[in-house]
Amino acid sequence: MSLNGPLDSLLQSGVVNGSVPGVTAAVTDRDGLIYESGFGERAIDSGIAMTADSVGWIASMTKAITGTAAMQLVEQGKIDLDEPAGTWAPYLAEVQVLEGFGENNKPVLRAPKRPITLRHLLTHTAGFGYANWDTSINRYVETTQLPTSNSGDIRGLMTPLLFDPGDRWQYSTAIDWAGLIVEKISGQSLGTYMHQHIFMPLGMTDTGFKISDAMRSRKATMHRRIEGGKLETTQMETPQNPPAEMGGGGLYSTTGDYLNFIRMILNNGAGNGNQILKPETVQAMSRNQMGDCRVCKLPTTNPTVSLDAEFFPGMPKTWGLTFMINSEQAPTGRSANSLSWAGLANSYYWIDPAKGIGGVFMTQILPFVDQRALALYLDFETAVYENLP
Questions:
Q1: pLDDT by residue (tens digit) across 311-346?
Q2: Is 63 a catalytic residue?
Q3: pTM over 0.85
Q4: Gyration radius of the chain over CA positions
Q5: How many Cβ atoms from other residues are within 10 Å of residue 113's Cβ?
Q6: CATH superfamily, domain at 4-73+189-386
Q7: Residue in 171, 193, 348, 349 annotated catalytic
Q8: Where are the domains of the chain?
Q9: What is the layout of strands, in order, in the sheet containing 357-362?
């Protein structure tokens, strides 16, 4: 059975009913593309079609690529997963744990019980948080007037820890720190390193922190959901010449480019005729790397940016080296021990090694986990499994 008919019909209906202004989606197996299409408009009421090669901000889908860059350096023996990361990023050796706020709203801090490691950073167990999903970090940022974490200003990452490294999971800016470590060890900007060691070898010609002229001509516009469920356009765009490139969420890409990355993972590190990672590295990245810790719900502190976020509530979820891992078969049909995550503007991906498939769904809408956009994505993933040959 072909995927085209049911998937085309589903995505087109999502545009017609206002779930999304435009969407691109694609599916791959280990051998190559098995579905790709685009529907709707790059900007609502613009008349400009959202085509399969449209470019969007993939936000935290960047994290898996940054993790790949870091693991390349681990393979080369340039850094160890369990050595103190403060060796490469001095702030990580100085950061303290936030225990609360005292008189005049002054933060109460203490030294952590153990040093932060690269493993902590890649599994979100370092102790950092995000202001959008943690009230203490949100309060600290407001009190100290720090830049936002996505500003490209490294000061925006200099928040305290919420707990001792390794104690639990908390989604965070940790992968941004991993990206800065890649820069320090490689002597290159993160974007330059990724271009040379990941993007070009995999044929990802439409991916980067800076939007090229060719990418901008196909770039989708950001939207936000407003009262009554309608969508309106916004001018939101990440800084194009930031002091630092943010490995936690700065990349722009296409669904087709990201599928090249997914296919590399499905093929144990090989893609486009190049071996990007060793098979044993991919296997390590794809296993639980945080022990008894579990992924938890992210309660919002800013509903205009994100709603409360949790995938497959009630299901135990672990974390590998920059991937979420569902411990049981998902309601969509996704196999147990598959890999996945998402981007703030409602872009999503999954990698199912057991069945040898993976997919990407991209739209450009805030807030994150917008109910209608998320429902369309989950319906898309379900339809893929229902219609596989």
A1: 999 999 999 999 999 999 999 999 999 999 999 999
A2: yes
A3: yes
A4: 20
A5: 11
A6: DD-peptidase/beta-lactamase superfamily (3.40.710.10)
A7: 171
A8: 4-73+189-386, 83-183
A9: 33-40, 22-29, 357-362, 347-352, 338-343, 324-326, 317-319
